[in-house]
């Protein structure tokens, strides 16, 4: 028997060299795509966070290289996350300096490592599938709505924003309306050509060796140069804007060090704990979502991911970068580009650092509208119509939490929306479990009803309400047999309800017989449970 390690078997490891060349053909182009997607997002999130632009790029570099090497996930990509921008912005203001905030990131990273070591990542096993599917579709819809303004040349909101309420005092819908009134036709043409390339280029199998996103960037850059000096010319803010360094001295000056003098500051520890919790939750959600869309259906080790993310945040904080999480947008782009292993994420990290050092001026000629086209196609794949049809055919108990999660995430933000979806999902789980804890039969013995309740193999706390309701609704003057002969485990709360009912039933003329029900049950051993690697 082969043991799974993050979706890769021991046999796979033995023939790693055999697959390396085949995988690299997919991973290197995918890493390039992720690099193109990550570049404006890193900058936009840093800008919105009130942090130096280089700190966003640095978080992307560390997320790609450090987290990529330590992670057990083959397709997840880490970097600065939009969900942390408000926390970062407020924390820098409260603490008085960016250096003081860096200490929070270092401590948060250490906390995440501890969370991974104590196996807190197992919480990911309890995210309902319908909620994760809803989150993916919602991110797709958000990408389409948020990237539309950038595609038509309206770049007031920062790249990477996922929240409904924007920092520019608008919201997702009003941003789209304003974009329609301030269209830059040069940006529209570039976006339209870029979308056509993204859609039709992959259909030419022989030409598709050149990644469509790379062709999009080349075409967009050429068109922007052609439009310069005409009525279709783009504004400076409609291009990628990377800090340009002229020498090694300027480059090393971009790095910042944490202010360890604030180690005794209570606010530092509160901020660190907040970052650790929020970043860990976003990471686990993203990890589950990426596993859903992995074509090979591998299972990522969640506890190892927390350790990897913690190490990444610790390194990022020490060097002067932003906090990071596993990010679903970059990860989805990675999957969509055909990545097979973590080499794609690592390669994107190296591309970030090489290109920022070597060709920043060239990168600053890339229009945001062509990058928006790439993200629009990613969004469409995540929110495809077939997904809605698939969830509908699964039944209302899956479709309703799915739709509620979509609406909640789009109208609030990722964590709040998923939280609302989780509540609805748990309601349907409880509703389903209320029907499953026993088999119920009614017979007659003379003038009395004979009721037999045969308990299921596993009777958990979730079954408590159903059994309580059933017992209290049994008719008076009847004989009741509660049979536990099939049960390997009955929750203590359920046992208490059964025993209390037996003692009090005589007041209703009910005679209760307990059959093969023990006084206590031990929790089933782990070997009897379904194994999921952590």
UniProtKB/TrEMBL annotation:
Keyword hit for Transmembrane helix: yes
Domain SLC26A/SulP transporter, first and last residues per copy: 24-398
Domain of life according to the entry: Bacteria
Keyword Membrane: yes
Keywords for this protein: Membrane, Transmembrane, Transmembrane helix
Transmembrane segments: 28-47, 53-70, 98-118, 130-148, 183-202, 214-235, 268-290, 311-333, 345-363, 370-387, 399-430
Main location: membrane
Membrane topology per record: Multi-pass membrane protein
Short name of any one Pfam family annotated for the protein: Sulfate_transp
Subcellular location: Membrane
Protein name, per record: SulP family inorganic anion transporter
Organism for this UniProt entry: Mucilaginibacter litoreus
């Amino acid at each position: 028997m082969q043991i799974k390690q993050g979706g890769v078997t021991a046999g796979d490891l033995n023939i790693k060299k055999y697959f390396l060349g085949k995988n690299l053909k997919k991973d290197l182009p995918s890493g390039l795509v992720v690099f193109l997607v990550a570049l404006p997002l890193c900058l936009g999130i840093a800008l919105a966070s009130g942090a130096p632009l280089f700190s966003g790029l640095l978080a992307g570099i560390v997320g790609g290289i450090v987290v990529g090497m330590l992670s057990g996930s083959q397709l997840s990509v880490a970097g600065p996350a939009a969900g942390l921008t408000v926390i970062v912005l407020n924390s820098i203001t409260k603490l008085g300096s960016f250096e003081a905030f860096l200490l929070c990131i270092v401590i948060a990273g250490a906390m995440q490592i501890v969370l991974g070591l104590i196996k807190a990542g197992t919480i990911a096993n309890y995210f309902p599938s319908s909620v994760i599917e809803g989150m993916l579709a919602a991110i797709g819809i958000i990408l389409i709505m948020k990237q539309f303004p950038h595609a038509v040349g309206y770049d007031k909101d920062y790249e990477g924003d996922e929240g409904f309420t924007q920092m520019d005092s608008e919201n997702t819908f009003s941003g789209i309306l304003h974009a329609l009134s301030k269209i830059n036709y040069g940006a529209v043409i570039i976006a339209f050509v870029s979308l056509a390339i993204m859609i039709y280029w992959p259909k030419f199998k022989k030409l598709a060796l050149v990644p469509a996103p790379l062709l999009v960037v080349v075409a967009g850059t050429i068109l922007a140069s052609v439009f310069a000096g005409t009525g279709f010319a783009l504004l400076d803010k409609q291009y990628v804007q990377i800090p340009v360094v002229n020498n090694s001295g300027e480059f090393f000056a971009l790095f910042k060090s944490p202010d360890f003098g604030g180690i005794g500051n209570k606010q530092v520890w509160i901020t660190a704990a907040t970052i650790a919790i929020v970043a860990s939750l976003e990471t686990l959600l993203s990890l589950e979502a990426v596993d859903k869309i992995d074509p090979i259906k591998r299972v990522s080790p969640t506890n190892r991911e927390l350790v990897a993310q913690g190490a990444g945040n610790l390194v990022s904080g020490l060097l002067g970068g932003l906090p990071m999480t596993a990010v679903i947008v970059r990860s989805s782009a990675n999957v969509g580009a055909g990545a097979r292993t973590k080499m794609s994420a690592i390669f994107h990290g190296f591309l970030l650092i090489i290109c920022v050092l070597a060709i920043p001026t060239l990168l600053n000629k890339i229009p945001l509208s062509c990058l928006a086209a790439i993200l629009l196609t990613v969004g469409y794949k995540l929110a495809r119509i077939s997904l809605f049809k698939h969830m509908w055919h699964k039944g209302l108990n899956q479709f309703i939490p799915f739709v509620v999660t979509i609406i909640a995430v789009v109208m609030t933000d990722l964590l709040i929306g998923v939280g609302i979806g989780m509540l609805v999902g748990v309601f349907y789980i409880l509703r389903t479990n209320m029907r499953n804890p026993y088999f119920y039969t009614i017979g007659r013995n003379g003038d009395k009803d004979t009721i037999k309740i045969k308990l299921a193999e596993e009777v958990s706390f979730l079954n408590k309400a159903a059994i309580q309701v059933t017992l209290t609704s049994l008719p008076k003057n009847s004989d009741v047999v509660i049979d536990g002969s099939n049960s390997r485990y009955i929750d203590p709360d359920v046992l208490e309800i059964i025993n209390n009912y037996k003692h009090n039933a005589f007041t209703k003329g009910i005679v209760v017989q307990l059959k093969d029900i023990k006084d206590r049950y031990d929790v089933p051993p782990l070997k009897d449970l379904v194994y999921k690697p952590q």
